[in-house]
Amino acid sequence: MRFMAPSAASLIAVLAFNATAGAADVRLDENQPIQLDARSSDFDYKSSTLFFKEVRISQGRLWIEADSANANGLNFDSSNWRFTGHVRVGLIDGTLESADAQVTFKHNQVEVADIAGAPAMFEQKRPNGVARGRASHIEYRPNLGTVRLTGDAWLSDGTNEISGATLVYDLVNQRVVANPDDQGDQRVRLTIQPKKIEKNPTPADTKPKP
Predict the structure, then answer these.
(1) CA 23 – CA 2 distance, rounded (Å)
(2) H-type alpha helices, the chain
(3) What are phi and psi for residue 46, nearest 5 degrees?
């Protein structure tokens, strides 16, 4: 993880999680089909609400699964969903996990997924390890490729750590931004582990033992 000089106008801290050139485009194609699988479904005509058990919705590389879900319709051009119980959301080389999630579909794609837990969890595999995070709420916007952690937010690349009221993680460039306007009274804290320096062997170390 490397640290970049913050901009006084906007950033209090920026971390780069070993970003690699040519990262994948995370935007969804609205022409990709949306697949829905469930153990059971039910329609409440009075409230015009759909209920599903053991549901999984997928579109391309993005997927959402949970013990149950309800929605105000199957029109993915504009619909709102609530997922509850063992909620998992698949994203670029990683997952989000929580107890509850609100998902908005617009123009046949996920516009935003707002997940909550105690805490909600985030994980992304990287070339040199795994980035992990947790917070009370996590907002995932696929077309922006961002994960916004709010409420005792914490992120780690496996060695170094950052915590604050709100942290924004860029999935493509693998950077973390902590904006001062989002922190309130809470301070951003960084824990940077020193690099281990390999010592050259001394003559005594290389001398054959009798």
Answers:
(1) 18
(2) 203-206
(3) -65, -45
Report the chain's terminal Cα–Cα distance, integer Å. 44
pTM as predicted: 0.75
**Which residues are CB-contacts of 12 (< 8 A; sequence separation ≥ 6)?**
6, 178, 179, 180, 183, 188
Taking the C-alpha atoms of residue 29 and residue 127, their distance in angstroms, rounded to an integer, is: 26
Amino acid at 36: L
HEC states along 150-163?
A: EEEEEEECCCCEEE
Residue-wise pLDDT for 37-76, tens only, equals 999 999 887 788 999 999 999 988 889 999 999 999 888 8
What distance in Å separates the CA atoms of residue 166 and residue 177, rounded to the nearest whole number?
9
Residue holding tokens 């000089």? Answer: 5
Instruction: Please name the amino acid found at residue 120.
Output: A
